[in-house]
């Protein structure tokens, strides 16, 4: 049974119905053009940012909670689901009783004329991808650029780890670094890789536009990316610590650039 469109009405969704089976498949294998968003706070934020909720699924136990009518009214279609069933369908380990489906945002390619972009080189973990996009958005980057073959930035775990930043920052997928580097250099900029050896971040003054390349946990940036870069930048560490989590390292580098005059 369909939910009531735009009125805040809620239809009940049976645990064995076809729509619920379809939703399970869509959570497991994301459809092109749509994004599954898990979590009350994140869905509330999307509504506040003007993102249209195409579908909304609410746990029955939340129906008497504050703001539920407003949330349901903001969705084109909405349903109420048994708490345990919705928790089982939810893509994350700590579901909050709210699941929404929204359209994947359309992003224009970063022109590379100014500012800073964070480039994710073969980052395979959706949680790390989301955290990196969140750092890029919070620390003033113009875009997050993803190498071909990396994690899906609109995977539910990436969306949640980004705290919704994938809807607020241009996230451009399948961008070969060679193409990005060529565009940046046409505008007088530089490409730098984050590495365990290189110029200390305190002495780093790259030309803008700047692309900062970070690699996957463990293996770091690829040899190909190193070969395309203008240099490597490193964060000096104490107490024999060899490396930082990629999200922490990216945040420190982006913050260093933010503190410099453009």
Q: Pairing-aware structural class of the strands and helices?
A: alpha/beta
Write down the Rg. Answer: 21 Å
User: Residue ranges: pLDDT <50 for 5 or more in a row?
Assistant: 1-8
CATH architecture of the largest domain: 3-Layer(aba) Sandwich
Which sequence of strands runs across the widest sheet? Answer: 8-7-6-10-9-11
Report the end-to-end length measured between terminal Cα atoms: 55 Å
Helix content: 25-40%
Could you state the oligomeric state of the chains shown? single chain
Beta fraction: 15-25%
Protein model, in words:
It contains nine helices and eleven strands. The protein has 262 residues and is α/β, with parallel strands linked by helices. It folds into two domains: 11-103, Ribosomal protein L30/S12 (60s Ribosomal Protein L30, Chain: A); 116-259, Alpha/beta knot (3-Layer(aba) Sandwich), CATH 3.40.1280.10. The strands form two sheets. A six-stranded parallel sheet has the order 8-7-6-10-9-11. A five-stranded mixed sheet has the order 1-4-3-5-2. Helix 5 (126-138) links the parallel strand 6 and strand 7 (143-146). The longest helix has 14 residues, at 246-259. The protein is elongated and about 60 Å long.
In short:
By secondary structure, the protein is α/β, with parallel strands linked by helices. It has helices at residues 18-28, 40-48, 68-73, 83-89, 126-138, 156-161, 177-186, 223-228, 246-259; strands at residues 11-12, 34-38, 53-59, 75-81, 98-103, 116-121, 143-146, 171-172, 190-200, 210-215, 231-234. The strands form two sheets. A six-stranded parallel sheet has the order 8-7-6-10-9-11. A five-stranded mixed sheet has the order 1-4-3-5-2.
């Amino acid at each position: 049974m369909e939910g009531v469109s735009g009125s805040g009405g809620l239809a009940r969704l049976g645990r064995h119905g076809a729509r619920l089976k379809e939703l399970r498949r869509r959570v497991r294998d994301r459809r092109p053009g749509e994004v599954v968003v898990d979590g009350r706070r994140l869905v509330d934020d999307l509504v506040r940012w003007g993102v249209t909720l195409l579908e909304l699924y609410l746990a029955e136990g939340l129906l008497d909670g504050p703001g539920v009518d407003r949330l349901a009214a903001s969705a084109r279609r909405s349903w109420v689901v048994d708490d345990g069933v919705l928790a089982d369908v939810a893509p994350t380990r700590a579901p909050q009783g709210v699941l929404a489906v929204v359209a994947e945002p359309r992003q224009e390619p970063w022109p590379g004329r100014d500012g800073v972009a964070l480039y994710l080189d073969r980052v395979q973990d959706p949680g790390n991808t989301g955290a990196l996009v969140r750092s890029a958005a919070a620390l003033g980057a113009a875009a997050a650029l993803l190498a071909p073959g990396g994690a899906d930035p609109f995977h539910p775990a990436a969306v949640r780890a980004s705290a919704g930043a994938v809807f607020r920052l241009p996230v451009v997928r399948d961008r070969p670094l060679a193409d990005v580097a060529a565009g940046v250099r046409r505008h007088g900029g530089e490409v730098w890789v984050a590495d365990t050896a290189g110029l200390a971040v305190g002495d780093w003054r790259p030309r803008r536009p700047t692309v900062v390349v970070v690699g996957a946990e463990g293996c770091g940036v690829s040899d190909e990316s190193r070969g395309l870069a203008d240099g490597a930048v490193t964060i000096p560490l104490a107490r024999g610590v060899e490396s930082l989590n990629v999200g922490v390292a990216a945040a420190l580098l982006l913050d260093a650039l933010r503190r410099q005059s453009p």
